[in-house]
Structure formats: structure tokens, C-alpha cells
Automatic annotation (TrEMBL):
Domain DNA methylase N-4/N-6: 137-397
Organism per entry: Iodobacter fluviatilis
EC number, as in UniProt: 2.1.1.-
Name of the top EC class for this enzyme: transferase
Family: Belongs to the N(4)/N(6)-methyltransferase family. N(4) subfamily.
Originating gene: pvuIIM
SUPFAM superfamilies from the UniProt entry: S-adenosyl-L-methionine-dependent methyltransferases
Pfam families the UniProt entry points to: N6_N4_Mtase (PF01555)
Domain of life: Bacteria
Listed name of the protein: Methyltransferase
Reaction(s) catalysed (UniProt annotation): a 2'-deoxycytidine in DNA + S-adenosyl-L-methionine = an N(4)-methyl-2'-deoxycytidine in DNA + S-adenosyl-L-homocysteine + H(+)
Gene Ontology molecular function terms on file: DNA binding; N-methyltransferase activity; site-specific DNA-methyltransferase (cytosine-N4-specific) activity
Gene3D superfamilies in the cross-refs: Vaccinia Virus protein VP39
Gene Ontology BP term (one): DNA restriction-modification system
Length: 417
């Protein structure tokens, strides 16, 4: 055993045992001695803590299992998963648990979680990562945490902090937008004044701030209509009966230069209706009519020109059900990973990526979640970059990218879950 210790230690999944020990401790701090004992017990080899081996030219005696554990401990420190307890020697704890079994990256952490030939997903704060990016960006599309009064497991800013929160996240991205590039935000209108059925005006304040502070121009408000959305607001619609249940979320489309905006609605044409198909086949309408005091006229050849499709309207009707979400959930459950509580369907970023970018351009998402924006970009041949604070969500998202060319995952992520 002594002579083969190095080989055997490599084969043992020490990193997983070290990380899980801190994870299971929650907010409690763990001394190094306790860590050694727990890990050795997990290995089923407590006697390893008593073995010492000569190291280096001096032949000084060291316990190699403890040394290996400390090495993995430092790896977790560099990843921002754990931090030293101030004033305590050899005592560590989780850096920032944000919910059950969820771990948020500490400030300054910038880890490539996984990548493909077209894109990369980072673990870390978006403002830290995008501050060092100089690549021209064609589109930022993201669904940031909503300012909910009862926070989800991953946490969210309060409404009073929300404008500064969003502007701070977008500022390093906007400096790299190419002229006519776009920013698309999926927000929530279901934020209410305290103890009131009146909706908050935070969205309107945010729109004005994005223009005044960051120089963005509002191109459109696009409702994402989802009639399968759970009924709400529960208290004001289902209990007090003064509100209607919500069936949409607003999506805001901005650009840094409306005169150079790079959108093209021919990239998102929709199939013609059966009626329009018949009109085109017949050479157009066979009647004349005038409506709206002459503002709108139908001539005998109206609607007869053959086109590839109809221009999409500025309303997106999409349910929240999505085959990618189903695949993510199955992968997460199979790997004992917590499931993200707020996922939009891949068809939402897919639409805007087609509408607002061309192949090989860079698409970014500063609140990546399960990296649906990256997934849509990957399939559409766009380069992509996403950031996410919660390491478990990235581990689950990685399962959706394994089939793509050049997929690589950081070895530390393999022990998550």
C-alpha cells in the first residue's frame, strides 16, 4: 500500500469526497482534522491517516492523504466554493450557499465550466467576466432574476436595487456591442406594490434608465404569451378576485443605434395561412374595397404576390414546455442535481438570435441559467458566451452540450451532484 499510494490516491475520488463534506455541512465550519477524518471514513480507510511517507530529497515524513485533501481544499478555494473562517487556522466553510445544495461563485471567480467549438459557459459574476471581454458582441439576450418578494432558491435582488443591478450587469457588455447590435430582456410584469393589487412600475423605470444611463434605444415591447402559465397573481386573482390571471411576460428589445439596427424580419418569416396560399395561387383578391376612410384599400390584385412567408408579428406565443427543458430535468435528476426553478423554452432565444444576428456572430447571456441561449446559438451556428453564478445549474446544463463538436467540461464539475 505505501509504495503504491500515489497511484491509488489518484484513482480514489477524493475531490468529490472533499467537496461533498463541505456541501453536507451547510453553513457550519469544518476544521482540517474533522475534514481528514470524514474523508477517510468515506473512503472506508481511516488507517490512511496514520501512514507517513518520506517526501523530497530531505526525506521529511508526511501523510500523503492529508496532503492530497489539502490540495483539493485549495482547488475549492480557488473556485470560490469555500472560504477560510477569519481568525481560525485550518477552519473552512462554504463561501456562499444561496439555497439548499446551491453554491454561488464568490467575487472574482472566473472558471470555464464547459465549452464547445462555438461557445463557452463561465462560472462567475457576469460583471467580472464580461469586464475582461473585448470581442465584438452582436446580441445580448437574457432572462435576469425577477425582483420577487419571496426569492427563488437561486436568490434575486430586491425591487429597490433592481435598476442598479441590471445596469451594472449590462454595462461591460454594452461597451462591446457592435453598431446596431441588440439587447433583449425577458422581464416580469407580475411584481406588485406591497399589500396592493397595483402592479409595480419597475419595468418602466428600468426602460428609462437603460436609455438614460446606458444609451440604449427601445425598439419594441414583445409579449411572450404563454396560456399554460400557472394562474396568478394567486392572492389578487384567485383569492380576492380583483385581478385577471397573467398569461404573458414582457420581452424588451433595445439597440445601441436604431439607424444601424441589424435586425432582418426575412430571417424569421412564418408560413402563410391556407387562405393566403389560395389568394397567391389565384393571383390575388377578386374584389375592391375601402376601409378606414380610405386609409386601407383592397384592389383586385391585392395579396397576389408570391412571397416566401409572412412577416412575424410582435407577439410570441410559446408554452413553457420544451423538449430541452425535459432533457435537462432528466439529466439533472439522474445526476442528483437541483433543478432550476425558472427556465424559458429554447424557442425564445432561438427566435431573437435568428431575427437579430447572422451566422458566426457572438451572442451572449449574462444570466445563463441552464444555458438555453447558448444552446440555441450553438444550433444556429452562432458563437456564444454565457455566465452563471450557480455551479450546479452549469453542471446540469453541460449535459445538453455533450454531443456538440469540441465539448469539454472542467474536471471539477464532474464531481458536482
Amino acid at each position: 500500500m505505501d509504495s503504491d499510494f500515489g497511484k491509488e490516491a489518484i484513482q480514489l475520488d477524493l475531490f468529490s469526497h472533499v467537496r461533498n463534506t463541505y456541501s453536507q455541512a451547510g453553513e457550519e465550519a469544518i476544521s482540517n482534522d474533522s475534514l481528514y477524518a470524514v474523508v477517510a471514513e468515506k473512503l472506508g480507510r481511516p488507517e490512511l491517516l496514520k501512514i507517513k511517507t518520506p517526501v523530497g530529497s530531505s526525506g521529511e515524513m508526511h501523510n500523503l492523504i492529508k496532503r492530497k485533501i489539502r490540495w483539493f481544499q485549495q482547488t475549492l478555494k480557488q473556485l470560490g466554493v469555500i472560504e477560510r473562517v477569519q481568525g481560525e487556522r485550518g477552519v473552512w466553510r462554504l463561501a456562499e450557499p444561496v439555497g439548499k445544495d446551491l453554491h454561488k461563485a464568490a467575487d472574482g471567480v472566473r472558471l470555464v465550466a464547459f465549452s464547445t467549438d462555438l461557445g463557452v459557459a463561465f462560472w462567475g459574476h457576469c460583471k467580472d467576466i464580461f469586464a475582461s471581454v473585448s470581442e465584438p458582441i452582436a446580441l445580448c439576450i437574457t432572462s435576469p432574476p425577477y425582483p420577487l418578494r419571496n426569492a427563488r432558491a437561486y436568490g434575486n435582488p430586491a425591487e429597490s436595487e433592481y435598476i442598479d443591478f441590471i445596469c451594472s450587469a449590462l454595462e461591460p457588455i454594452i461597451k462591446n456591442l457592435i453598431p446596431g447590435a441588440s439587447v433583449v430582456l425577458n422581464l416580469s410584469s407580475d411584481i406588485f406594490l406591497s399589500k396592493s393589487p397595483a402592479r409595480s412600475l419597475y419595468v418602466e423605470r428600468l426602460v428609462l434608465s437603460l436609455h438614460d444611463r446606458l444609451g440604449l434605444f427601445l425598439m419594441d415591447r414583445i409579449p411572450w404569451v404563454n396560456k399554460s402559465k400557472p394562474p396568478g397573481p394567486t392572492y389578487w386573482a384567485c383569492v380576492n378576485r380583483v385581478q385577471l390571471t397573467t398569461a404573458y411576460e414582457p420581452i424588451f428589445w433595445f439597440t445601441n443605434d436604431p439607424l444601424k439596427v441589424r435586425s432582418d424580419n426575412r430571417r424569421v418569416l412564418e408560413p402563410h395561412s391556407d387562405r393566403q396560399q389560395r389568394l397567391m395561387a389565384a393571383g390575388g383578391a377578386k374584389r375592391s374595397a375601402t376601409y378606414g376612410d380610405g386609409a386601407y384599400k383592397i384592389r383586385p390584385d391585392s395579396f397576389g404576390r408570391v412571397t416566401e412567408g409572412k412577416i412575424a408579428r410582435n407577439v410570441l406565443e410559446r408554452g413553457h414546455a420544451c423538449s430541452d427543458t425535459k432533457a435537462y430535468r432528466e439529466y439533472a435528476l439522474n445526476h442528483n442535481l437541483p433543478i432550476h426553478g425558472a427556465m424559458f423554452p429554447t424557442s425564445i432565444p432561438e427566435f431573437f438570435i435568428q431575427f437579430l444576428t447572422e451566422p458566426n456572430e457572438l451572442v451572449v447571456d449574462c444570466f445563463g441559467g441552464t444555458i438555453k441561449t447558448g444552446l440555441a446559438a450553438e444550433r444556429l451556428g452562432r458563437r456564444w458566451m454565457s455566465t452563471e453564478l450557480i455551479i450546479q445549474y452549469l453542471r446540469g446544463a453541460a449535459g445538453l452540450f455533450q454531443k456538440f463538436n469540441g465539448f469539454e467540461m472542467h474536471p471539477a464539475l464532474r464531481s458536482i451532484g
